[in-house]
Amino acid sequence: MPEGPSIVILKDLIRELHLGKPEVLEVTGNAKNFDKDRLLHQKVEGFKSWGKHFLICFNDFTVRIHFMLFGSYLINGRKKTPVKLGLIFKKDELNFYTCKVDLLEGNVKEHYSWENDVMADEWSSSAAIKKLKEKPNALVCDVLLDQQIFSGVGNIIKNEVLYRTRIHPLNKIEDLPPAKLKALVKEARNYSFDFLKWKKDNTLSKHWEVYSKKECPLQHKIDKRELGKTHRQTYFCEKCQKTVK
């Protein structure tokens, strides 16, 4: 599943096409939960990202692309795989595959708050801390994947942030001292931008310290377990990451 930084890369790639506000000349694909003809001859007002969502904004509605587990896209190219949504402009085309496509009515700002998007300029660490304190019994391995607190954080970022901050995934929010809570919030954003840089350089996996590893950088054994309510795969070091009692 693409994490927030990967969606930012898609947005940047499209920006490099210098499309401006292009008119949709043709719509293709097998998306069936809205009338695709509504997009015809409409001008795109902008391309945005919110967490793991890619947003194509029109005057009074927005097309939301969620890549789920196996989604992908091609810019000015096509796959043999059936396209879920394809948009053809005068000089360029965008094709999205194996993804979830929805149409959101009204202004996109009515649907999203960018203060909880870890990649956004509007990101608010104080808002994140406030929301975390409202979930005292939640496990940190769960809250890092809560898209209403850390929009854009996925399983890779979760594992690496917990190791960076030396926080055990089974710690509860209420057990973390204020300094650790602030570190958790700070590193969720910091690592996301590191992820972005490494992804662009095609070196992301070379920088993993625990994710998919058998030993941590200090050569301690890595535990691999499905933890929390999310049951997502978690990699952690019992020696480096301590539970708070």
From TrEMBL:
The keyword Signal does not apply. Keywords: DNA damage, DNA repair, DNA-binding, Endonuclease, Glycosidase, Hydrolase, Lyase, Multifunctional enzyme, Nuclease. Coiled coil: none annotated. Pfam families: Fapy_DNA_glyco (PF01149), H2TH (PF06831). Residues 2-100 form the Formamidopyrimidine-DNA glycosylase catalytic domain. Residues 114-196 form the Formamidopyrimidine-DNA glycosylase H2TH DNA-binding domain. InterPro entries: FPG_cat, FPG_N, H2TH_FPG, Ribosomal_uS13-like_H2TH. GO terms for biological process: base-excision repair. GO terms for molecular function: damaged DNA binding; DNA-(apurinic or apyrimidinic site) endonuclease activity; lyase activity; oxidized purine nucleobase lesion DNA N-glycosylase activity; zinc ion binding. It catalyses: Hydrolysis of DNA containing ring-opened 7-methylguanine residues, releasing 2,6-diamino-4-hydroxy-5-(N-methyl)formamidopyrimidine. The keyword Lyase applies. Belongs to the FPG family. This is Endonuclease-8.
